[in-house]
Amino acid sequence: MNTLRAHIDALDEQVIGLLAQRHALIARAAQIKKQIGLPARIDDRVEEVVANAGRHAALRGLDRTLIENIWRQLVEAAIAQEDRYLNGDRP
Q: Among 8, 29, 78, 87, which residue's Cβ finds the most Cβ atoms within 10 Å?
């Protein structure tokens, strides 16, 4: 069990690293959106991102609904991050 737990912990660290990279990309997206006058929330894009995550999950044998729910939370957090930037509250 200890070895298995260590592998899980290592994967969790990698996932966090990927989320940090995503966070940085969202910050860049907010800068671009501000320059060209786009809002933080673009509903079609939200649905596209969630559908992509669900499709990738299903291809890997994961619960599509679970992953889509997680991704909706992730996307909502990204929109909030962009909103803060667009409203002048830079991270």
A: 78
